[in-house]
From TrEMBL:
Pfam families: Peptidase_S8 (PF00082), TPPII_Ig-like-1 (PF21223). This is Peptidase S8/S53 domain-containing protein. It comes from the Eukaryota. One of its GO terms (molecular function) is tripeptidyl-peptidase activity. Residues 38-264 form the Peptidase S8/S53 domain. One of its GO terms (cellular component) is cytosol. Residues 305-419 form the Tripeptidyl-peptidase II first Ig-like domain. Keywords: Hydrolase, Protease, Serine protease. GO terms for biological process: proteolysis. It comes from Panagrolaimus superbus. Belongs to the peptidase S8 family.
Length: 421
């Protein structure tokens, strides 16, 4: 048997347990690595994103033609907890292999993941190498500010995916007597993040009945969690990338993020809030149409349009001393570029902006100017928490839109959350 990464050869330890294994041979044969599964979570996630059953295509995942690379970032000696060294090695391997999209369906202890080496490497992965990074939002809901992986702080270009439960899923997967309305799963973590960012980018179905490792001795299993919604989004994104390559549409993580956010669907049934839903439910066909029709103004060397409100990614007021008086914020909006390509476009980039409140925002407590511009500008935001009802969370979102290309939707969003005790 040769290295799996070379010839895709694998075997089973015995016919009784069906525990699979494969080999990786390193250093000219001097180091032998024997790989076995330590659970079924990864296999279930992979099936959602890209499972393929040639004889039974109804069981296929979202992107059955995608090529899967599995990397272990947990240490079984520590209860499969994330280790920093393994995570950094995995990201470096993704760069080496030139992957298109990363799915991260894994938890992390908050104090394990700081803003140092992790954040710098993910910034490099996304901005320099153009790899899309998608992460599970976490399963610590339904309380507010329960975002998972590093509280959403890792990098502003990471897509954080919440878990959605449709009425059809309730009936078909959970055998509910009455389907009722579609909802965000109660366990799905909610924003806003501690630094004011909304946290959830968008939602995707957060449960799946699909294949697991053969040593489980069953053909499929039902699991739910944001670990399931993240690969659902990744499978969708893989299909989107494939279509973009066929149509020769330029690809960048920021373009994909704008398209997915601005084409996401807000469900009509039930009560939904941006803290739990983000921009809405991922809609891949609508995103593709948006990319084809309205994305020419977004160059591939734009990596993000960053919000900075007193060194935070949004405005979040919840302490008594913060909400008992009127507050003024100077919000800096700045376009970030990949400094290693198309420098002429960096120099010439200019974009007029009109500012609006997003649909569903509370209006009375926020004042802001009508116009702005890119690549950078400071926006004065006036907030009056004293007029708001106590015992509630109040939300507004200022969005920046190019008046010459309004069909594209917002280029940036300034989230504002005020909680009155």
């Amino acid at each position: 048997m040769s290295s799996f990464c070379m010839d895709k050869e694998y075997g089973f330890i015995s016919d009784k347990c069906l525990l699979s294994y494969c080999l990786n041979i390193h250093q000219d044969g001097n180091v032998l690595e024997i790989c076995v599964p330590n659970g079924s979570h990864g296999s279930h996630v992979a099936h959602i994103a890209a499972g393929h059953f040639p004889d039974d295509p109804e069981k296929d995942g979202l992107a059955p033609g995608a090529q899967i690379i599995s990397m272990c970032v947990g240490d079984i000696r520590k209860g499969t907890a994330l280790t920093e060294q393994a995570f950094i090695r995995a990201l470096n391997k993704c760069i080496e292999l030139k992957v298109d999209v990363i799915n991260y369906s894994y938890g992390a202890v908050r104090n394990c993941v700081g803003e140092g080496s992790f954040k710098k490497l993910i910034k490099n992965v996304v901005e320099k190498y153009g790899i899309i990074f998608v992460a599970a939002a976490g399963n610590d809901g339904p309380a507010l500010t329960t975002m998972g992986f590093a509280s959403g702080k890792l990098h502003h270009s990471v897509f954080y995916v919440g878990a959605y439960l449709t009425a059809e899923m309730k009936e078909a997967m959970y055998s509910h007597l009455e389907a009722g309305n579609s909802v965000v799963f109660p366990f799905s973590s909610r924003g806003p993040c501690v630094d004011g960012s909304l946290g959830i980018t968008f939602c995707a179905p957060g449960a799946a009945l699909t294949g697991v490792s053969k040593h489980e001795l069953k053909g499929s299993n039902l699991h739910n969690g944001t670990s399931m919604s993240s690969p659902n989004a990744v499978g969708n994104i893989a299909c989107l990338l494939s279509a973009m390559k066929v149509e020769a549409i330029p690809i960048s993580p920021f373009r994909i993020k704008i398209a997915l956010q601005n084409s996401a669907m807000i469900p009509e049934d039930g009560s939904h809030h941006p803290y739990s839903l983000g921009a809405g439910i991922i809609q891949i066909s609508s995103a593709f149409e948006l990319l084809k029709s309205s994305m020419n103004c977004i160059s591939t060397n734009i990596t993000d349009i960053k919000i900075n409100a007193k060194n935070k990614r949004g405005i979040y007021l919840r302490e008594l001393w913060e909400v008992n008086r009127i507050q003024e914020f100077n919000v800096c909006v700045k376009t970030k570029f990949n400094s290693e390509k198309e420098l002429e476009k960096v120099v010439t980039f200019e974009c007029p902006i009109i500012l609006k409140l997003a649909s569903g925002s509370e209006k009375d407590f926020v004042k802001y100017p009508k116009y702005s511009r890119l690549p950078s500008n400071d926006i004065s935001v006036h907030i009056d928490p004293t007029i708001l009802e106590a015992g509630k969370a109040h939300y507004a979102e200022i969005v920046g839109i190019n008046p010459q290309n309004q069909s594209l939707g917002p280029l940036f969003r300034i989230p504002i959350t005020v909680i009155i005790p």
